[in-house]
Design goal:
alpha/beta; eight-stranded mixed β-sheet; about 25% strand
Amino acid sequence: MRKVITYGSFDLFHEGHYKLLERAKALGDYLIVGITTEQYDESRGKLNVVDSIIDRIENVKKTGFADRIIVEDHVGQKVEDIHKYGIDIFAIGSDWVGAFDYIKDFCEVVYLERTKEISSTLLREQKYPIIRMGIVGTGRIASRFIPEAKYVSGIEVIRAYNPNKESVERFSRRFGIQAYWGEFCDFMEGLEAIYVASLHQTHFEYVKTALECGKHVLCEKPMALSESQAKELFAIAKKNDCLLLEAIKTAYCPGFGQLLGVARSGIIGSIVDVEACFTRITDPSSRERKDARYGGGFLEFGNHTMLPIFKLLGTQYKSVHFDSIKDDKGIDLYTKASFSFDKGMALSKTGVEVKSEGQLIIAGTKGYILAESPWWLTKSFEVRFEDPSKKEQYTAKFLGDGLRYELSEFVSLIHNGERKSYKFTEAESIAMAGVVEKFLETRG
């Protein structure tokens, strides 16, 4: 008898799950299905799980493919189960290719082809339909986004768009999704949501078109290059009952939320100064260093550094002043943006050819908060006081590349019928776009 084992959360049970179990069953004579607990899902970074484990077990049972169902609740259990049940074949979806090669030391490993374009629930009336998403752009951030999406329940990235045929086909082969390079509107057909990760200057038109077609949109920063553009996009989103969310991953991460809560608690008194730094020495051939109009440090990292400033001091700044070190093309290699508020001040430091300490300092009348580099991942921070022996330390999880947090928020808002997020608000997006507009005016 050939024994097969497979694992999964099997949340929001759909046709893809059914076909995976069907294929796993066909590999042998006896199929064991391991279903993860909510606690284990959370510990391994799987977000947004909707169904209880009881419901998930029942849905797998209804397929008739499982000869035995077990519960997976800890790291290392897969190898334990292979020995315990005398497993011959370990089967898992092809989106995990390579991740379980270590199990080849114990049994045969088979990566089963995933079901493309999940269309419907197979076994029950669906409370939360699977959101079919398309990705616009096939660059660095898009390549990080698709692996992160595997950790968010309720969404499936099924196709990618880039007018450059060669680029999108290469991306499509790498991630096993559909490739589109023709009409953008044709690409969006059959999708509920769009993730825009293209060049900065293309964001506005892609987002506008998607919203006008009734699609929910998650857009990389900067979403808009002027205040009027941002206001127009949010107005279209409201008109078409669509969710529009700007994707600055830090805003949605647990550690950053905890930091904001501590800062606002009064423990450091009134907040009077926020200083945020994000610099990187980039490749001279990169877009950031070559694009005279849309490259440079501030357009690349300025929205990140403005995030804690606007979160803690508000969006109603009195003035902003820019000082930049530029190359011969006018690209800012290093920029300081100084903000003035009625009762405070702030400093944003960004760069693509200058390296500084990437920390966040929040100064108050009773103490200060220090989040050390890289603060935008917010894995830990300290509250410090006049007495140097008095410190409070905080730590938080930051899983993977962090993109799963913004996507989890996006999916949750859609499922709950909400069209705004307190983690990153419309007012904050508009204010950032206004600062970007001022910066572009000064650069000329």
